[in-house]
């Protein structure tokens, strides 16, 4: 990480409110406004992800980490603040520009494969969908790319033309990963990538993700409630609580020597 | 058309006692307006107020409404169903248009000015000034990839056709060939992707740069789209997997033509291949094609 480089992703003062909003909302310290019932998904989040760096976001359910990820994936337009992707302000973009950014700059792996994959298509088809969206029109090249990725994520060779529905959970996550990597994204978003898997498969997938990240020197943002995942993947970590970033720093530093009471509780609550 | 001639026309009742060309004048005007819009945006699907017709929806009611709206009394009409002038459905539609609009009919595609068709483009080389009206069952080429009209409308609007390319990829990966036997999706003038109705692949290249006007009417789906003359029409295909038309084992059993679209028929208990365009086949046998 060299600070002189342009960050792949920047968020400045990112605030997302779910609800109509009222005059009191902004001033009150509540997560849920007592007057209009508006819920604050996250407030005044600032973050940067540099090329080749892995940023972890950790926090309990409802802490706002998925809201931040949804903003990074351009699913959600922030109520205030801005999102800068690869040097360009993309706050609130939609339509074909958003589609282009998702095709060329971003890749995402969701917690459940149903979100990221078409289960009725073959593994190869799911992977191929991204080069095709980027305008590849040679069948041989698309096919070759699918084979490359399939071996990169260690899928058995003979399963490329099999429906994803017939795959196990771990295999589906591998397909999701291959699909996300298909267009060599500048930023890979991982939303609880291993939460639905058993422990041994989790470890193998995390190993794979770490290896690919090192090989491709790609920036990643990992959202997880699992400190093990964060510890294994992230260079830096943000701890979120009630929509705010309460602590941030190098992963080892934050997890070894947490300053905030909430972080201390989170670290000590880990199952061993 | 001037308002006066419009009035003169509506005053003159058809033989059957209906208004000229069956539909009332405001209905025809609405259909013509949709046709004009469709011609201005080749390949784009224009909604129109599809009327209840004396044929069931799905039996050519969309094509029929267009034909009745554009027909003029000096037109010569040809109606075919799968290339056949004599099928029950073609006869019924032809009789309705001819009776109410008082037009001459013909089976010769070369001299017809208005051709309503289902599943085929006549084998003859058509020329400028001819109008071909297609009966369309499914208007949206993206229906196969997503059944939700709200989603496919957005895809068309954004020019996001990756889903249909993915469909082509899946066909090649699983089957080794395209599964579209008819309605092969085409790109119109480098823009919209369009379904050329259920015409076989054989007829698809004949739409490219065609000198005639193509009007597509989907009655059940209340949609009209069109190709003006000399429009570029390109079937979607990977660069290294070119589009292919059907190939047949042997020439027409009746007229000996090769290179025409053939269908299977029973001849003395044996399956034989014959031209699907019956009138073209007949004229070839009589030596006048």
Write the layout of secondary structure elements.
The complex is a heterodimer of chains A (272) and B (289).
Chain A: E1 9-18, E2 39-49, E3 54-58, H1 65-72, E4 80-85, E5 88-89, H2 95-104, E6 106-109, H3 113-116, H4 123-133, H5 139-152, H6 169-181, E7 187-191, H7 199-216, E8 219-224, H8 227-233, E9 236-241, E10 244-250, H9 251-256, H10 261-268
Parallel strand pairs in A: 3-8, 3-9, 6-7, 7-8
Antiparallel strand pairs in A: 1-2, 1-4, 4-5, 9-10
Helix pairs in contact in A: 4-5, 4-6, 5-6, 6-7
Chain B: H1 3-11, H2 25-40, E1 46-47, H3 61-70, E2 76-81, H4 88-101, E3 104-105, E4 114-118, E5 131-135, H5 149-158, H6 162-175, E6 186-188, E7 193-194, E8 213-218, E9 223-227, E10 233-235, E11 262-267, E12 270-275, H7 278-286
Parallel strand pairs in B: 2-3, 2-4, 4-5, 5-8
Antiparallel strand pairs in B: 1-9, 6-7, 6-10, 8-9, 11-12
Helix pairs in contact in B: 2-3
Approximate helicity band of chain A: 25-40%
Beta fraction of chain A: 15-25%
Q: What is the rounded Rg of chain B?
A: 19 Å
Q: Give the H and E element order of chain B.
A: HHEHEHEEEHHEEEEEEEH
**Average pLDDT level of chain B:** 92
Strand order of the largest sheet of chain A: 6-7-8-3-9-10
Structural class of chain A: alpha/beta
Largest sheet of chain A: 6 strands, mixed
Which stretches of chain B of 5+ consecutive residues score pLDDT under 50? none
Number of helical stretches of at least 4 residues of chain B: 7
Q: For the terminal residues of chain B, how far apart are their CA atoms?
A: 36 Å
Q: What is the CATH architecture term of the largest domain in chain B?
A: 3-Layer(aba) Sandwich
Strand content of chain B: 15-25%
- Class of the largest domain in chain B, according to the CATH hierarchy? Alpha Beta
What Rg of chain A do the Cα atoms give? Answer: 19 Å
Unreliable spans of chain A are: none
Helix content of chain B: 25-40%
Q: Assembly type of the shown chains?
A: heterodimer
User: Largest sheet of chain B, described in full?
Assistant: 7 strands, mixed
Per the principal axes of the C-alpha atoms, what is the gross shape of chain B? Answer: globular
């Amino acid at each position: 990480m060299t600070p002189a480089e342009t960050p792949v992703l920047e968020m400045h003062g990112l605030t997302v409110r779910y609800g109509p909003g009222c005059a009191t909302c902004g001033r009150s310290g509540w997560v849920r406004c007592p007057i209009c019932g508006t819920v604050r998904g996250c407030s005044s989040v600032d973050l940067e992800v540099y090329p080749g760096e892995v940023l972890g976001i950790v926090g309990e359910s409802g802490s706002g980490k998925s809201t931040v990820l949804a903003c990074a994936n351009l699913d959600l337009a922030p109520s205030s603040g801005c999102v800068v992707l690869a040097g360009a302000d993309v706050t609130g973009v939609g339509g074909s520009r958003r589609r282009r950014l998702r095709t060329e700059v971003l890749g995402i792996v969701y917690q459940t494969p149903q979100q990221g994959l078409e289960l009725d298509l073959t593994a190869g088809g799911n992977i191929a969908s991204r080069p095709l969206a980027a305008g590849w029109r040679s069948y041989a090249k698309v096919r070759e790319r699918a084979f490359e990725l399939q071996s990169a994520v260690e899928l058995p060779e003979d399963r490329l033309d099999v429906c994803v529905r017939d795959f196990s959970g771990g295999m589906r996550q591998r397909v999701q990963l291959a699909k996300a990597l298909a267009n060599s994204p500048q930023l890979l978003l991982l939303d609880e990538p291993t939460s639905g898997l058993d422990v041994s498969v989790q470890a193998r997938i995390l190993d794979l993700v770490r290896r690919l990240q090192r090989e491709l020197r790609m920036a990643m943002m990992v959202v997880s409630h699992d400190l093990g995942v964060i510890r294994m993947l992230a260079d830096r970590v943000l701890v979120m609580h009630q929509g705010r970033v309460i602590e941030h720093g190098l992963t080892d530093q934050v997890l070894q020597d947490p300053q905030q009471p909430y972080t201390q509780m989170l670290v000590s609550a880990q199952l061993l | 058309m001037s308002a006066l001639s419009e009035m003169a026309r509506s005053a003159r009742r058809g033989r059957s006692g209906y208004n000229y060309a069956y539909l009332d004048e405001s209905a025809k005007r609405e259909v013509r307006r949709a046709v004009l819009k469709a011609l201005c945006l080749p390949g784009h699907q224009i909604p129109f107020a599809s009327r209840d017709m004396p044929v069931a929806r799905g039996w050519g009611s969309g094509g029929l409404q267009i034909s009745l709206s554009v027909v003029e009394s000096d037109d010569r009409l040809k109606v075919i169903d799968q290339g056949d002038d004599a099928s029950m459905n073609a006869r019924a539609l032809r009789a309705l248009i001819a009776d109410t609009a008082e037009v001459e009919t013909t089976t010769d595609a070369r001299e017809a000015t208005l051709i309503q068709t289902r599943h085929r483009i006549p084998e003859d080389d058509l020329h400028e000034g001819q109008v071909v009206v297609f009966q369309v069952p499914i208007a949206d080429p993206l229906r196969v990839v997503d059944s939700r009209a709200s989603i496919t409308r957005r895809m068309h609007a954004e020019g996001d056709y990756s889903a249909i390319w993915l469909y082509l990829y899946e066909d090649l990966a699983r089957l080794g060939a395209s599964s579209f036997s008819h309605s092969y999706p085409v790109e119109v003038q480098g823009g919209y992707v369009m379904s050329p109705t259920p015409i076989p692949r054989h007829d698809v290249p004949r739409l490219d740069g065609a000198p005639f006007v193509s009007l597509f009417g989907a009655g059940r789906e209340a949609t009209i789209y069109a190709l003006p003359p000399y429009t570029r029409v390109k079937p979607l295909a990977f660069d290294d997997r070119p589009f292919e038309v059907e190939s047949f084992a042997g020439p027409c059993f009746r007229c000996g033509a090769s290179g025409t679209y053939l269908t299977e028929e029973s001849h003395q208990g044996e399956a034989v291949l014959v031209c699907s365009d019956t009138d073209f086949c007949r004229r070839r046998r009589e030596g006048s094609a």
